[in-house]
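Quick one, tokens below. Sequence please?
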């Protein structure tokens, strides 16, 4: 078709109209996009792509830096935990070396009172947690626009803080002793502060009242254990006194039976001698019988005196012997046990002390009879209190002292004629040392002894 015919034809007109319509549409779209660009400040595609690329690169750099900082923080946290553990160990050793006498916070008489108070403190803690007063905070928090999710997040944070603090406090309470109670209190306070810092972002914090209950629990647990031990020691003392009393009563019964038996023998012998005296005809026989009768009557009189002494010991509950004994093999030189027994034969009590609980027998340095043996024992304990080995348990009656000083105190105040042995024989201990020596040393020691003799 010729070009002129095509241009003048209907198809060309239709195509031209379509192009015009398309052009108008594109112009309108351009104006619309231009208006949006002006309205929102939208930049060109290339410029936007460039900025996006720059921001993406910057974000990657920041992300790498954050990851690096997290690793560094993790390493520092690990080192810090190690250092804190070392610090706590050092503090515990320092407190052990320089702890002061503990001053009780409570003054109950019996252990069950401490137990009741301790249970009450723990119930108060449970009530505070249940009522939401142990830890509070985090009001008005929302997660993804949800107040319910925010409330749940705060509740989880409170549980986390409480659990962390309770674990640390419970460990301190369960392991409290006389030498670490100050450290335990410090650890509880440090945990309290650390947990509050952990919840600071969400304004979650433990209450001071809850901290005070935990500290009360720590002190009560310690004092409860101490009081229980004191009661246990007191029960031991009472049982020991009861055993001593029973032993004394058994000794008195046995002595009375012995005296009664011997008195019957003397009575029978006197009756027989009197009959023989009545039948005697010679003066020589009568003199011999009268001498024998005098001997029997003297023996009977001695029995009367012995019975009077038993009556006195039975009626006077404080009469007894104070003993000073040592055990070099068990406790070393210069350590003495100063005790008291009401036994008729004090050596029975001393032999009991040297049973299987110690490796060697005790050596006796002094036995002092006193009408008030408990008072004499108490005065000696008070006089040598500075040398008491166990300053906590008064039932352990061992003292580091000079035997000459002990003798001087007894002679000046209680018994001027007391017999005191200065050197302990310690036969089994010394023989054991000799047997443990090499044979050459034994021969050399024997030769030296022989030369000295």
């Amino acid at each position: 078709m010729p070009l002129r015919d095509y241009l003048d034809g209907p198809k060309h007109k239709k195509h031209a109209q379509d192009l015009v319509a398309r052009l108008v549409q594109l112009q309108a779209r351009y104006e619309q996009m231009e208006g949006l660009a002006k309205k929102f400040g939208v930049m060109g595609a290339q410029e936007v792509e460039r900025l996006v690329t720059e921001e993406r690169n910057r974000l990657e750099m920041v992300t790498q830096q954050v990851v690096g900082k997290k690793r560094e923080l993790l390493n520092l946290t690990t080192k810090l935990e190690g250092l804190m553990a070392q610090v706590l160990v050092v503090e515990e050793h320092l407190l052990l070396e320089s702890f002061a006498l503990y001053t009780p916070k409570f003054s109950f008489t019996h252990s069950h009172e401490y137990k009741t108070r301790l249970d009450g403190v723990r119930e108060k803690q449970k009530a505070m947690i249940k009522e939401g007063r142990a830890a509070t905070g985090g009001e008005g928090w929302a997660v993804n626009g949800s107040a319910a999710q925010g409330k749940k997040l705060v509740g989880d944070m409170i549980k986390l803080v409480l659990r962390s603090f309770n674990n640390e406090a419970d460990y301190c309470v369960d392991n409290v002793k006389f030498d670490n109670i100050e450290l335990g209190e410090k650890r509880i306070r440090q945990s309290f502060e650390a947990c509050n810092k952990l919840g600071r972002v969400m304004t979650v914090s433990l209450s001071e009242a809850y901290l005070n209950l935990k500290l009360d629990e720590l002190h009560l647990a310690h004092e409860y254990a101490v009081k229980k031990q004191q009661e246990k020691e007191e029960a031991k003392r009472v049982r020991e006194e009861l055993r001593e009393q029973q032993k004394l009563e058994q000794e008195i019964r046995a002595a009375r039976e012995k005296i009664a038996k011997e008195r019957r023998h003397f009575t029978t012998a006197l009756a027989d001698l009197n009959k023989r005296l009545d039948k005697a005809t010679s003066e020589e026989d009568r003199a011999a019988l009268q001498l024998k009768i005098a001997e029997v009557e003297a023996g009977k009189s001695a029995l009367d005196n012995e019975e009077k002494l038993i009556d006195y010991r039975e009626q006077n509950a404080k009469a007894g012997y104070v003993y000073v004994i040592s055990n070099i093999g068990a406790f070393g030189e210069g350590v003495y046990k100063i005790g008291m027994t009401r036994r008729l034969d004090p050596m029975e009590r001393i032999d009991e002390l040297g049973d299987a609980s110690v490796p060697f027998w005790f050596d006796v340095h002094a036995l002092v009879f006193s009408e008030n043996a408990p008072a004499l024992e108490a005065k000696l304990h008070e006089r040598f209190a500075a040398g008491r080995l166990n300053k906590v348990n008064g039932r352990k009656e061992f003292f580091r002292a000079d035997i000459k000083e002990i003798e001087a105190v007894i002679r000046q105040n209680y018994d001027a004629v007391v017999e005191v042995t200065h050197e302990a024989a310690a036969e089994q201990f010394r023989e054991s040392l000799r047997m443990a020596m090499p044979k050459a040393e034994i021969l050399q020691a024997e030769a030296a002894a022989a030369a000295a003799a």
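The beta strands are 135-136, 205-206, 320-326, 335-341, 363-370, 398-400. Residues 189 and 212 are 10 Å apart (CA to CA).
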